[in-house]
Amino acid sequence: MGGVRLVAVDGPSGAGKSTFAARLCAAFESATVISTDSFATWDDPVAWWPRLAEGVLEPLSRGEPGHYVKLDWTSGHPEPGEHVTVPPPEVLILEGVSAGRASVRPFLSALCLITGPDPAERLERAVHRDGEAARPYLEKWQDFERGWFAVDDLYHLFGGTSLGQIGHVFYAERS
Fold first, then answer.
1. Which candidate among 52, 73, 77, 107 keeps its CA 20 to 30 Å from the CA of 127?
2. Distance CA 49, CA 62 (A)
């Protein structure tokens, strides 16, 4: 993607993607994390992608800053929040459900799939993070995720590149 290495950290809610992405970001001298939570809503879990591609990925691939409006979830429901400018980093880490979707895989330098614990434990982790009022939304979100991951098929990465695993983290790296 131009001079920017693109890394996706994908997996279901409550799996530990944000924690992993933050640690990965800290390992690089020039890295930025963008969360899909800045774009996705309960009603629009994946169709928002063109806003990210046109506002951030395409400009960065040309060596130009990207821009987007980050969703503010502090009220429990997404509302337009701060305007964010993304200067071209050495590494851009996309973190969240659908970050490693099939349409972006040709541009990825690496993809990490964080599977986390079983769905019941992941739900409790997400409720702990987002609050009890989010439980019914998170339960529906988990149903959506099962369908999304079945259709998007993260397990056939990079046209058959071997997949590695460390604990709940699966990874593929383009050679």
1. 52
2. 19
Cβ–Cβ under 8 Å, residues 1 and 60: yes
Q: Which two tokens stand for residue 65?
A: 């800053």
SS3 at position 83? strand
- What stretches of the chain show up as alpha helix (H) in DSSP? 17-26, 49-52, 58-61, 119-130, 135-152
pLDDT tens track, the chain, 175 positions: 889 999 999 989 998 999 999 999 999 999 999 999 999 999 999 999 999 999 999 999 999 999 999 999 888 888 999 999 999 999 999 999 999 998 998 888 888 888 888 889 999 999 998 899 999 999 999 999 988 988 887 755 544 454 566 655 666 655 5
CB environment 66-96: b (16+ within 10 A), e (fewer): bebebbeeeeeebeeeeeeebebbebbbbbb
- Let me know how long the chain is: 175
- Report the alpha-carbon distance of residue 79 to residue 81 in Å, rounded: 6
Identify whether the C-beta of residue 13 lies closer than 8 Å to the C-beta of residue 97. Answer: yes
